[in-house]
Write a structure and sequence with these properties.
The complex is a heterodimer of chains A (107) and B (110).
Chain A: E1 4-6, E2 10-14, E3 19-25, E4 32-38, E5 45-51, E6 56-58, E7 62-67, E8 72-77, E9 86-92, E10 101-106
Chain B: E1 4-7, E2 10-13, E3 19-25, E4 31-38, E5 42-51, E6 54-57, E7 65-66, E8 76-78, E9 87-94, E10 99-101, E11 105-109
Parallel strand pairs in B: 2-11
Antiparallel strand pairs in B: 1-3, 3-8, 4-5, 4-9, 5-6, 7-8, 9-10, 9-11
The chains are: A mainly beta (107), B mainly beta (110).
Chain lengths: 107, 110
């Protein structure tokens, strides 16, 4: 089956700095990947997705990079703000979730 | 407003007392699923449904039942709850891969 996981359970960054959250996957057949954000006390919310025929996709302050050679994707958040504090999950096709990375914003 | 609703949001019950957590979506999505979230384990899928009257086991189905009699509703049933089912439960629906999650139901089984 598919395995999607995140590298670090916790990531602490200074407010205003850029954040990079990483994820590795094992199923090469996945056609797309999705990043979710889960704030405390809430359900996960869609942030951005990327199809397997792309290596980069940009949204508002977020960029997802896909490296199919090493089966790795990352979520980059520019100019991190206090509201970015949350747990971030990556999910692959088949909707398998990693355990999540808790992004902590230091003032 | 497009949304997924769950009820109740919080529930404390005792071992063996049957309970149902309701889930409803207003987006006409065919796919719906239930997850439980536990510290250190992330989101684990319990059951999913591709369409009305079509349900399948996820990764951790033991102790749970579901039904999908109509497209908008996907209740989660615990026939005989046990303390190891104490968890945070999320219902989700989707049209493609992007899932819309409900607000969660925090269940405690004593």
């Amino acid at each position: 089956g598919e395995s999607v996981g995140l590298h670090l359970p916790t990531l602490s960054v200074q407010e205003g700095d850029n954040s990079i959250i990483n994820c590795a996957y094992s199923n090469s057949a996945s056609d797309y990947f999705i990043w979710y954000k889960q704030e405390s006390g809430k359900g996960p919310q869609f942030i951005i997705d990327i199809r397997s025929n792309m290596d980069k996709r940009q949204g508002q302050r977020v960029t997802v990079l896909l490296n199919k050679t090493v089966k790795h994707l990352s979520l980059q958040i520019a100019a991190t703000q206090p509201g970015d504090s949350a747990v971030y999950f990556c999910a692959g096709e088949g909707l398998t979730f990693g355990k999540g990375t808790h992004l902590i914003i230091q003032p | 407003e497009a949304q997924v609703t769950q009820n109740p949001r919080y529930l404390i019950t005792v071992t063996g007392k049957k309970l149902t957590v309701t889930c409803s979506q207003n987006m006409n999505h065919e796919y719906m699923s239930w997850y439980r979230q536990d510290p250190g384990l992330g989101l684990r899928q319990i059951y999913y449904s591709m369409n009305v009257e079509v349900t399948d086991k996820g990764d951790v189905p033991e102790g749970y039942k579901v039904s999908r009699k109509e497209k908008r509703n996907f209740p989660l049933i615990l026939e005989s709850p046990s303390p190891n089912q104490t968890s945070l439960y999320f219902c989700a629906s989707s049209l493609r891969a992007e899932q819309y999650f409900g607000p969660g139901t925090r269940l405690t089984v004593l």
